[in-house]
Amino acid sequence: MTLSNCKIIDGKHNTSKGKLILTVNILEGQPKVGEFIYLKEQYFSVHFFEIEKINKPLLSKHYELTIKFKEPEWMWNDRIRKHIVEEDDTAICGISVESFYNLTSFQKLDYIKTIAEFISPGRVGDFINDNLKFATKFITKEKEGGIGLTKFGGLPYCSSDILFPKDINGKSALFICQIHLAEVNQWFETTKEFKETGVLYFFASIKSEDEIQVFNDIIVLYSNNIDNLKQLNLPDDLKDFGVFEEMDLMVAEEINLPPNETSLWQFEEMTNDERNKYWYVEAIINRINVFSSSKMLGHPSQIQGCVLLEAELKSTKKGWYDPNGFDNDNYKELVKEVEQNAIKWRHLFDIDPLDDYFRKLSSYDKEFNEYMDGRFYVMIKQDDLDKMNFKNIETVYQCT
Hints:
CATH topology of the largest domain: Hypothetical protein YwqG fold
Mean pLDDT: 92
Strand order of the largest sheet: 1-2-5-4-3-6
Helix content: 10-25%
Strand content: 25-35%
Radius of gyration: 24 Å
CATH class of the largest domain: Mainly Beta
Low-confidence stretches: none
Largest sheet: 6 strands, antiparallel, barrel
CATH architecture of the largest domain: Roll
Oligomer: single chain
Number of strands: 18
Order of helices and strands: EEEEEHEHHHEEEEHEEEEHEHHEEHE
Number of helices: 9
């Protein structure tokens, strides 16, 4: 798996034939027919396009790359070409998304590390490679026969040490899902980070917001017991809500990079060039990670600011979580105060309430999670994760 780097001089788009001919200087390596060029566009995205032909005209010092480009004219002129002219005229060439998914987990990790070192040698590339983590995505799908211990919705299937948890007001929390770690470990590397192989159970407490019922804090239970299991009965105070539809799961593993604005970056601020290179690696990873669904471990895909920092603020009741109020003018000083502790937090699980699955309960005919347009992050300290202690988690909600 080799990489090459090109400086794009210009491009000619043939809309009718679905082709784009790029005039390039090859800065490093040598692109090959059948490989893909990773073109950047404005709005923080990268697109992979297959190279069909490589030509070097006799009277030119440049190469011509003919690529499959079935995009509309505005994509080339207003997005990609504009980015080349105004921001950055380089692009690397490598393997396709399909080829990437045919690699083993550790081959995928090595490929991403190679990309980071290739694009940004030095402290940014080192930071990326030191902080890449496996994550597991859980995509709901229709039941196909019986469902195992890993599932979304329905009622919990568990041993006698698991009961529906209650919130601080004594109200039962809704069952979301359960993950049998040993089952997932058979196929993926992510959950091998857990020190045990039992079952994790995720529940959500409920709160009312403007007469609409929504998720509040997420509660996590764990049991190492997988013998003599039974289905729990629905508590009386949840009968007006019912349950989420019981669903089987498709499971996929991906590799996560910390977001650009993360408390894990403990160095002097990135330069503009470093930030652009970091963004390029991040955008390539986001292009490869094709599934949008609930995720376990890895890094949080934050919407507003550092989720690790927010988990620490919530845990210590500081900043906007201070019951006595907070002066936003003191935010920078507060960040300096708590950032060393913020890096102790890890992403455990997240939930996207924009997913229609989380908006319909079997016995509830009103609106549920209807206007929640962000993401719930379940955060845990690394020490607690190592001890399989899920009593001190924090739920962070961010929205657009």
